């Protein structure tokens, strides 16, 4: 970037920011000013384009309400959310990688015992999910709290169905003393992020699709370990190489195996096809 001293307006704004009492805020505002001015100069931004951008950001704000956060969605599709996630959650080799949180987590989701079905009647083929939660030396992490959530077979989270009035395809479980966990849910399918707002129009204008590859969200917490927010993706599914929000990490792609009717791993008899996913998580000790 060119020296702001070459540009009197940039230098003047930065000089006035020197009175910002909080040093971190000062650093952020100075850097933002430098980058914004450089962007306008590099692109020779026109007044009409500047006003289009103002209108776009206004529409993003107007689309937000208690359940819809269009600014986070904008950050997600620009890859900013994943840059921030990556640089704040770097884990040592061998630990499970984190990925984007997304807007569809719900605090205080229903609690389930191990082995129960969290689907709540959501549409989709049943899926038995199981595995272990361990530390970096392979030691079991006992009794971790596991929050899971996902979209249904039609690509909607329960919170996107206003008339539903109850939770589906989400829940909170506690791993056993050996770090083992298991539950029934439905198989994850690819789904589009919401496109009925300005972010959808931006994707269209830039020739991008809105799809996320099939995934199941996990948030895992245990005393003495860093909280892990991640997904497990379905190997072989569509959009793994073009996730609309850049969240795929190869280490998070796993085999979801489709099984014929018969006796499932928990001993129950299934009259319809079902899937199994076995995935182990490795947590990073808290420092
Ligand atoms: C999600 O996976 O739930 C999600 C993430 C980012 C934007 C929209 C949805
Ligand atoms: Fe999701």
Number of DSSP helical runs: 6
Any ligands, ions or cofactors bound here, and which? benzoic acid, fe (iii) ion
Proportion of residues in extended strands: 15-25%
Sequence stretches where pLDDT stays below 50 over 5 or more residues: none
Count of strand segments: 14
Question: Which structural class matches the secondary elements?
Answer: alpha+beta
Q: Give the end-to-end Cα distance, rounded to a whole number of Å.
A: 37 Å
Helix-strand sequence:
HHHHHEEEEEHEEEEEEEEE
Rounded mean pLDDT score: 95
Describe the protein's architecture and organization.
- The chain is α+β, with helices and mostly antiparallel strands.
- The protein has six helices and 14 strands.
- The two termini are 37 Å apart.
- The site of benzoic acid has 9 residues, from helix 4.
- The site of fe (iii) ion has 5 residues, from strand 7.
Task: Based on the model shown, name its key terms.
5-stranded mixed sheet, binds fe (iii) ion, 287 residues, alpha+beta, 21% strand, binds benzoic acid, 25% helix
Brief synopsis:
The chain is α+β, with helices and mostly antiparallel strands.
